[in-house]
Each structure stands twice: as C-alpha cells, then as structure tokens.
Amino acid sequence: xxxxxxxxxxxxxxxxxxxxxxxxxxxxxxxxxxxxxxxxxxxxxxxxxxxxxxxxxxxxxxxxxxxxxxxxxxxxxxxxxxxxxxxxxxxxxxxxxxxxxxxxxxxxxxxxxxxxxxxxxxxxxxxxxxxxxxxxxxxxxxxxxxxxxxxxxxxxxxx
Length: 159
Known about the structure:
Blueprint: H1 4-12, E1 23-25, E2 41-43, H2 61-65, H3 69-75, H4 81-101, H5 109-119, H6 127-132, H7 134-150
Antiparallel strand pairs: 1-2
Helix pairs in contact: 4-7
C-alpha cells in the first residue's frame, strides 16, 4: 500500500525521466540494478523508469531522500494533490514544447538544454541569435520557470 505522497511521486516521474536532473549520485557500495557512469552516477533518464519507477521500494538513497518543491508544498499542507497534478501537467506541456524546439537527440532534456546553452554561450545575447532561436529561447525560459517550481535549493543529492 502506498501513501498519497508516494502515489503522487509514482504518477509524476519527472525526477526520473531526465527533466529535472541529468544524473543521480549513488553511494559507494550501494546496489543499483543498472550500470552507472564512470563517476558512479545514475544517468537520467533512469533505466529503471518506465512511466513510473520500477524499483521504487529499492531505489537509491539519493532518490529516496529527494522530495521536489511541489511535493514538499503538498506535504506541508499549503496545497493539495490536485494543485500538484496541475503543476506536473504544466511541466509536461513545457517539456513537450522544449523537446520539439530544442535540437539534438539527448534523451535528458535537462542535459540537452544545458548543452545548447553552453554551445551558444558567446552568441546568446546577440540579436541575430535571439531572432533565429526565438522559439527555443522562449521554451528554455518557460522550462527554467517550471524547474523553479520543482527544484529545491540544495537539490538533495541529485545533480
């Protein structure tokens, strides 16, 4: 039997699918059923995510300790699950638009967005670039605002 908070997490999955993070650190000696990268991190999207976490009861400690800002708000009683589901739906709309607009095939939108911004860092502020990439930049702005609704300051062990 799951709690309402666990139900909300399992129905969301944004912290597992590469939307909020690009990797999760795994403690040395922790048993994880999928390969880690060379730095001992679990890359996102998580191989154990298939619409929901398939290892929820046995997920890594960093995953267990993470509660996004939306979940924290619900748990504190400041908002209800309906509000949280609206936040999740809005984030999914933002992600769909970003995925369509952002070039590349990297499955982690978080990483793909970071790579796009790093690749174009010198030209981001030029008028020509802003005109040429207006849609991508609007989607990135929407994404950044949506991330702020989910992230917490310390990021609780995820990157």
